[in-house]
Design a protein that fits this description.
Blueprint lengths: L1 H11 L12 E6 L2 E5 L11 E5 L4 E4 L5 H14 L4 E5 L5 H4 L2 H7 L4 E5 H5 L1 H28 L4 H21 L9 E3 L3 E4 L4 E7 L6 E6 L4 E5 L13 H13 L4 E4 L7 H23 L4 H7 L12 H34 L2
Parallel strand pairs: 4-5, 5-6, 6-7, 11-12
Antiparallel strand pairs: 1-2, 2-3, 3-4, 8-9, 9-10, 10-11
Helix pairs in contact: 1-6, 2-4, 6-7, 8-9, 9-11
Amino acid sequence: MTDLLLKFTVVILLCISSFSEADVQWHTLDNHTVLVQQAEKLKYYDSNQVIITGTQCLAIFDASGDFSQVENMAKKIKQHFKQPVCYLIASHHHDDHLLGMAVLQKLFPSAKLITHQALYASFTVYQQAFEKQLATYQQSITLNEQRLSTLELEPEQQHEWTEKLLQAKRRLKRWQTLSLNLPDIAVDTDTELDLGNLRIQIMPRSSHTLGDLMVYLPHSQTLLASDIGDPLPYLGDANIQQTILTLNTLLDLEIKTLIPGHGRQVTKEQLKITQSFILAIDNHASVAVKNNLDEQTMLESFKFSPLKELVRTPLDEKAYKIFVAAGLKQAYSQHKNQEMQKLNDSSIP
């Protein structure tokens, strides 16, 4: 019965807050910047958010994939800040950065959503992803109602899980009134925003995905790099070679504080190790293509020497295996396409 309860708990917590609000840490970086950092145990599952405050209004960078958490963050913002929220900035299309924007659009209706132009161009795909997420929550509730009816629980446990289901239903009903609305502003060149005595710079790139946004805060030389700045990056949707070039530009930028999309603040030295990791993946995949190696051989033969700099915990180890495989496959595909393009070009008279 313990195993059944564990499975029941895992699924139902999709619709109610998975961890207590205390697991999310709020760090005041300076008078204008607040980092909302995920618990260490969730750093590969959900994203950081940043609140940027000017004298006239606020900007929110990214939104958690946990809608309950987004609601809690919005509640705190309304309690602690007098300025209105004028901008919602989505760093890229991944669920744990974008889908929660639907909650913020509802709670801050005058705020303008900003995305990369490439994300805007295919936004219907992500609106469908939002609807699919709601459908998944509904399926989870239905499944757990069925499971609850088959479990032999003490009356107290029965009451506890019944209440959790009711809470999940109430939240889902609220979320089903939401929609992920089209961005108000789409950018593909460096753009400056004025929040009131505070100017911030939006930096669009095509690196981690086709449409990434970073934000640079000149007043404190802080870079909100999102997943481009992750020490152990997921490269499954990345333009690998462009990511390496982007990291070159970041290393040349005057940065005192660098906020990644996941986990704690990172230093330029850590960013250099990340860049060497991505270079190693790209080089290994390039050699595999040139030597006509199959994917499995390529995966099994990859080694990265400064591994201890990236893998410090069992959670890091699990992520490393998944991310290396995703990165190598992506790099392999891109090098394969480049080789095909060369062959096609050489065949043209």
